[in-house]
Amino acid sequence: MAGTDDDVSNLAIAMTARELHPRLFVVIRQNLVANKVLFDEFKADVTMVPSEIIAHECLAVLTTPLLARFLDIVKAEKDEWADRVVASLRERVGEEVPVIWRVHLDAAHAPGCFEAQIPVTLEWLLRSSSSREEYLHCMPLLLVRGDKEHPLPEAALQLLPGDQILFAGTREARTLQALTLSNVNVFDYVRTGEQIAGGWLWNALRPRV
After folding, report:
1. Cβ distance 181 to 125 under 8 Å?
2. For the chain, which domains are there?
3. Which residues contact 28 (CB under 8 A, 6 or more apart)?
4. In this predicted model, what pLDDT tens digit does every residue of 16-66 receive, in sequence order?
5. Are the C-beta atoms of residues 85 and 152 closer than 8 Å to each other?
């Protein structure tokens, strides 16, 4: 790992290390954007650009405020707890970088759930709207209810109007979950397994048997 505040030094350290051990896993820090071509040419295993890391984190926090609250919880927990979360997330999502999104359980953002007029269980938001026997490749990270935070909520938890849930998962999982939230017929299918015709969209998306 080469992580000084001088790009020339970092490249020199990394090049020397690779000459000594060609199969060495190299992590290198790039400080100046102007040196991108040099770092791209070196082809380190991981290139860390502090300005980009900060920018990406700021953007994530601004677009998904619950993420900042979850990260505060992570910082307060022990490394073993964080390792278990990462392992669970990798098991459900795989090796790709997960998408982060928020679900607000209200009439405006989840009309399908509200039209059903029954209590909503978190598990129903984890089942696939194309085949309810399958679970989505996603994981609930945080439930916020009023001023209380519940990290890693259980699937059996009954949700309440106004709850906010932070999810991490694949883009496909987010898309399929959005159908459950927005369409009462899809929500009923996920909940009961019964397919109810509800217009051309549902007929086009319903699972083929």
Report:
1. yes
2. 7-49 (no CATH), 64-205 (3.30.70.1450)
3. 1, 2, 3, 10, 11, 14, 39, 42, 44, 46, 47, 48
4. 888 888 888 888 888 877 888 888 888 888 787 766 655 555 555 555 678
5. yes
Which one-letter amino acid corresponds to residue 93? Answer: V
Is 7:32 a contact under the CB 8 Å cutoff?
yes
Alpha-carbon distance of 3 to 195, in angstroms, equals 57
Q: Is the whole-model pTM more than 0.85?
A: no
Alpha-carbon torsion, ordered 59, 65, 70, 75, to 10 deg: 50
CA dist 23 and 28 (Å) reads: 15
The pair of three-digit structure tokens given for residue 74, joined into one six-digit string: 């992570």
Tokens coding 80: 């073993």
Element (H, E) at 56: helix 50-63
One-letter amino acid identity for 53? I
